[in-house]
Specification:
- This protein is α+β, with helices and mostly antiparallel strands.
- The chain is built from 5 helices and 5 strands; from the N terminus they run αααββββαβα.
- Helix 1 crosses helix 2.
- The radius of gyration is 17 Å and the shape is globular.
């Protein structure tokens, strides 16, 4: 039997993997409330943290201080629009780029580099077209 808590987590997870958007916890909350009207924002935050901690979602911290979430676990980079704040996936093979960055960072670092996180920013096509 699935408990209420795990059904809520499953709904949160299913939403993350079904969207190409990168929702904030508040957006996830508004979506999941349709199915679970009594869910609290705190419950959504706890479940998002659980999913991130267990490798089922990724946090996408943004330059404006907000944190968004991504259900796409394949290695990829993100783009944030400096006008509207929207976050988009960039589609290019980044495997060799990540390895080159790790190697460059390791040259003058005595620790062990395990990976890197970075994002691109600029103006999205929607904002460019609206002028």
């Amino acid at each position: 039997m699935i408990t209420k808590h795990s059904r809520q987590r499953e709904a949160i997870y299913n939403y993350l993997i079904s969207t190409h958007e990168h929702p904030s916890a508040e957006v996830v909350y508004e979506f999941v409330r349709k199915e679970f009207p009594n869910i609290s924002l705190g419950t959504v935050y706890r479940n998002l943290s659980f999913l991130v901690d267990n490798g089922q979602a990724v946090k996408v911290p943004c330059s404006d201080g907000t944190v968004h979430f991504d259900g796409n676990l394949m290695p990829h980079y993100h783009f944030q629009c400096t006008k509207c704040g929207r976050i988009l996936d960039l589609n290019f093979d980044c495997t060799h780029v990540q390895q080159e960055l790790n190697n460059a960072a390791s040259k003058n670092f005595k620790g062990k580099i395990l990976g890197n996180v970075s994002y691109f920013y600029g103006i999205c096509t929607n904002c460019m077209d609206s002028h």
